[in-house]
């Protein structure tokens, strides 16, 4: 029998022994089976199910290298960060994250609620499915977890203690490289460009000095603006959905950074879905819902942010007239910038999204990528111009009209 007092990477049969020894979630006579279900870039994820009762749970374990590439050497401390952040997010945004049952600092794993009755949002969007609560749920999650962990609400020394607790250098370095550096320079020769768009990207992204200058400024803002406890990887692969439920998962990239990093990631990934739907002539009802969701994500965030500000802000100077709107405008400017950065890095960088890569028709994929990249450049270069959801959507629609290959 395995000894769980010393760290090692578990296989499925060892996970069964582990949950029997470490948790009391299942009955003693449970008929347990285990399957590895993870397809992410970093960790090992297992589902354990009792064949008799149907009860199940997830076991997530961190390795010391990324699955996407052995070049990324990682501290297994990220699973502690993920477990603790999920617990905190569960307090700040009840019902919008999975429950955590156990964190094990020896085996570097977390045991949590199984969300198998949900679907990964990216998969669902690529299938053209509609989720009426999505924008409302995600904006509630972001306002509650971002504003309530910032200096304007928290006692300042308590906030600084959280900044220290959530220092996350290895995973921040991944973002610094894959989001803020390589998509503009390919200095590590890891970028994987779609051949039909390679020349266009080299000319319009790598070859744009002004764009790269703005990306440089954004990189150092990302590294130095300890504004709030951000999720750090809030794309459509980090959200589970069903019609009446939204759950945000995988906050292992969490650290104290700019609020707009989370909001921009959400907006960018909705735009990926819209661009795919546009070029593939998806159902009009679905496209209309996506457009409303993009607009509502920006507008509901702003509305809820200002309402929460009035209710929760404690700092005396943050109560000065007009400061709330000024602060929100800065978050929205960061949101626009990050929307652009995320769209560029997912097309011109190493880590792709299936929204783009599974478009079978070459001409359609070329168009979808150029819609995203053209929009991205505008969001970065004119980031202060975008304060409403309609303004964000207009940029994308204008880009679509320029790259229309229908």
Automatic annotation (TrEMBL):
The record's section on NCBIfam families has: MTRK
Q: Which chain positions lie within coiled-coil regions?
A: none
Q: Does the keyword Oxidoreductase apply?
A: no
Cite the Pfam families for this sequence. APH
Q: Which InterPro entries match?
A: Aminoglycoside_PTrfase, Kinase-like_dom_sf, Methylthioribose_kinase
List, for all copies, the residue spans of the domain called Aminoglycoside phosphotransferase. 34-279
Q: Which family does it belong to?
A: Belongs to the methylthioribose kinase family.
> What protein name applies here?
S-methyl-5-thioribose kinase
Oligomeric and partner information: Homodimer.
Under which main EC class is this enzyme filed?
Answer: transferase
| UniProt keyword Disulfide bond present | no
PANTHER family (UniProt xref): METHYLTHIORIBOSE KINASE (PTHR34273)
**Taxonomic lineage:** Bacteria, Bacillati, Bacillota, Bacilli, Bacillales
| Keywords, ordered alphabetically | ATP-binding, Kinase, Nucleotide-binding, Transferase
Q: Any idea of its EC number?
A: 2.7.1.100
Gene3D superfamilies annotated for this entry? 3.90.1200.10, Phosphorylase Kinase, domain 1
An MF annotation (GO) of this entry: S-methyl-5-thioribose kinase activity
**Source superkingdom:** Bacteria
